[in-house]
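Support request, please re-run this one:
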Amino acid sequence: MTEVPRPGRGRTKDRGKDEAVLDATVRLLATDGVARMSMDRVASEAGVSKVTVYSRWRSKDELIGAALAHLRLGRVPEPAGEVRADLVALLEAMRAQYVEVGAMGILGTCLADGSGALLDVVRDATLLPRRALFAAVLRAGIERGELRAGLDVEAATSLVVGTLYADHLAGRDTATAGWAADVVDLALRGLR
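Re-run finished. Output below.
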């Protein structure tokens, strides 16, 4: 006698609903901030039930972490194999995505939250993975001889990535044509 596998309990989760919830979370973070965002408001904004949200994410911090991790998927340009081109492409993709989703506002509200736990979520979900992409390009540049041996990769990563934050805070226009290339060219003068 063969045993027939029994179906699992409950319904299969609809990935379309997951996307709607994560997108709604990002929108509410950018427009309303962490303090005014609630899981109930996310459900309403996404057009799903509260049960849908609560069955997938146990807390607001967990939902925010998932939404921020969702942002970085599919947003990485293919490497060209040349340090300048790869850094420019990554920096431009980062700038464009930050503008698209209101990421500076999201970061500001996470910093203003003051709990530290939310900043850890942001750091782990988006900042550190993005820095790792830049660091990988720099390490490859060192291996190919495009950058000097002994380069402090973490400091160089901060130099390139940090310019976006610094220019935003200073009110400089990062959307001008060639902004990313100018930043990378300036940084490479010292890194080579």
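Confidence is low (pLDDT under 50) at residues 1-10. The radius of gyration is 20 Å.
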